[in-house]
Automatic annotation (TrEMBL):
InterPro entries: Rab4/Rab5_effector
Domain of life: Eukaryota
Name of the protein this chain belongs to: Uncharacterized protein
């Protein structure tokens, strides 16, 4: 669990946390150095639109292959099939709340490559963003 705040617009925070195309997934990996070595969008259920650019519901697959060199021979790559949802809502005080939710999906997809050395762990992630004061996001 992590808590904190940063300067900027809430939309920028959410946009940096999601990736609605495989190209944006690669950009996110480059910026975040998250160790993802392969990725695919398996299905888009809700896609971003010009009117709602941060709303998405997608099924994704990725392989995380990062490990320090000293232990890389002992650590297997991990692949994830997960459902990711993002968007913006207004709370009862009419303040914007942004969310990004992802949860592993225990389903098989023909589009994922055959796994020889990967391990599929459980994964859950929830990011919530809200205005604090001025241009500060919590």
């Amino acid at each position: 669990m992590g808590l904190g705040h940063c300067e900027g617009l809430m939309e920028d925070d959410v946009y940096g946390s999601i990736a609605s195309t495989e190209e944006l997934m690669m950009v996110k990996t480059a910026y975040a150095s998250d160790g993802v070595v392969d990725r695919r969008i398996l299905s888009s259920i809700i896609t971003p639109t010009p009117m709602d650019p941060l709303r998405a519901l997608q099924i994704k697959w990725c392989v995380n292959g990062s490990a320090p060199k000293i232990v890389s021979s002992m650590v297997r790559k991990r692949d994830f099939v997960y459902v990711e949802s993002s968007g913006i809502v207004m709370n009862h005080s009419m303040k914007k709340l942004n969310w990004v939710l992802s949860k592993n999906a225990a389903i098989g997809y023909a589009q994922t490559p055959e796994r020889h050395t990967q391990w599929r762990p459980q994964q859950r992630e929830m990011l919530l963003f809200g205005w604090r004061i001025g241009k500060c996001i919590e």
